[in-house]
Amino acid sequence: MTPHYFAYKQKLDWLVYKDLASREKKPELKEVLEKLIDHELEDYKFWRQFIDKEIQIPKWKIYVFRFLRAILGLTFTAKFLEGREEGMIKKYESYLETVEDAKQREEIREIIRHERFHEASFLELIKEEKVEFVSSIVLGMNDGLIELTGALAGFSLALSKPAIVAMAGLITGISAALSMAASAYMATKHEVGSKKPPAKVATYTGISYIIVVAILVTPYFIFSNVFISLTVMLGLVILIIAGMTLYTSVLFRRKFHHQFGQMLLFSLGVALISFTIAYLFQRFSGIGV
Predict the structure, then answer these.
(1) pLDDT recorded at residue 123
(2) Using N-to-C axis directions, what is the helix angle for 226-252 and 134-159, rounded to 10°?
(3) How far, in Å, CA of 97 to CA of 224, rounded?
(4) CA-closest candidate to residue 118, choices 74, 92, 85, 69
(5) Between the CA of residue 244 and those of 82, 123, 248, 272, what are the distances in Å?
(6) 3-state secondary structure the chain
(7) Mind listing the pLDDT tens digit for each residue in 199-257?
(8) Where are the transmembrane segments (predicted)?
(9) pLDDT at 121
(10) Using alpha carbons only, how large is the chain's radius of gyration in Å?
């Protein structure tokens, strides 16, 4: 690693945090971001003295993080950045071993302390509603994926016509979403020590479920062949699981592959079982639509 590499990374983070702070409306979050800006600028200035030209950062990279902030929240964006910086700490420590000047070594140690401060202190200060209720969102989406994937797979063989499968899926999905929301409300209301408003928990759970329902039945309204619809639906399941797993793995520092594989196994496993049951029922009963 070279000073140019470190300078580039520090300036990118500085510009990203600066952009996030300029758009942040909550005073407490803005204050935290401004602390980060000071650290990143100070660290960038240290590395800048070792390179000839001013570092240029493409604007699209800033826009990517602005988009992440708008869609996934400040906590996710900050943790994504800090996840990158965990690797940077190791690179700083490796580079430190090659530096002989005592003053420079101390300044690099200070940069490392900054990175550890960000990881240990900054992220704990951020509280967002979408993060506090992420368990409700995940519950709604997980249940929606597993239950509706299985139902649609079974309906696809039993009913044959995509429009009928879509309607059956919508009715089943919306009913299940309302049931899930009601269960979440009652569970939260009777949970000892819970500070979460039951109505919000129910809302997040129910809406997450309904979003999954809407996405998964869409192919059945678009394609006239039920098996093409089923294939596209299963592709959407994989994409949703990947996106949801990426979000939670960044947010809670969990391993992506383990979560992704587990959720994929449940969803596709239930779909396969449902499809098999529908096939056997149709074959031995002689009933079909």
Answers:
(1) 59
(2) 170
(3) 64
(4) 85
(5) 19, 20, 6, 22
(6) CCHHHHHHHHHHHHHHHHHHHHHCCCHHHHHHHHHHHHHHHHHHHHHHCCCCCCCCCCHHHHHHHHHHHHHHCHHHHHHHHHHHHHHHHHHHHHHHCCCCCHHHHHHHHHHHHHHHHHHHHHHHHCCCHHHHCHHHHHHHHHHHHHHHHHHHHHHHHHHCCHHHHHHHHHHHHHHHHHHHHHHHHHHHHCCCCCCCCHHHHHHHHHHHHHHHHHHHHHHHHHCCCHHHHHHHHHHHHHHHHHHHHHHHHHHHCCCHHHHHHHHHHHHHHHHHHHHHHHHHHHHHHCCCC
(7) 888 888 888 889 989 999 999 999 989 889 989 998 998 898 888 888 878 777 777 78
(8) 163-187, 199-222, 228-252, 264-281
(9) 54
(10) 25
Numbered ranges of CATH 1.20.1260 in the chain: 3-127
CATH architecture of 3-127: Up-down Bundle (1.20)
- Cα separation, 46 vs 54, in Å, equals 13
Question: Given a cut of 70, is residue 262 above it in pLDDT?
Answer: yes
Write the pLDDT tens digit of every residue in 127-169.
Answer: 555 666 777 777 778 888 888 888 888 888 778 789 998 999 9
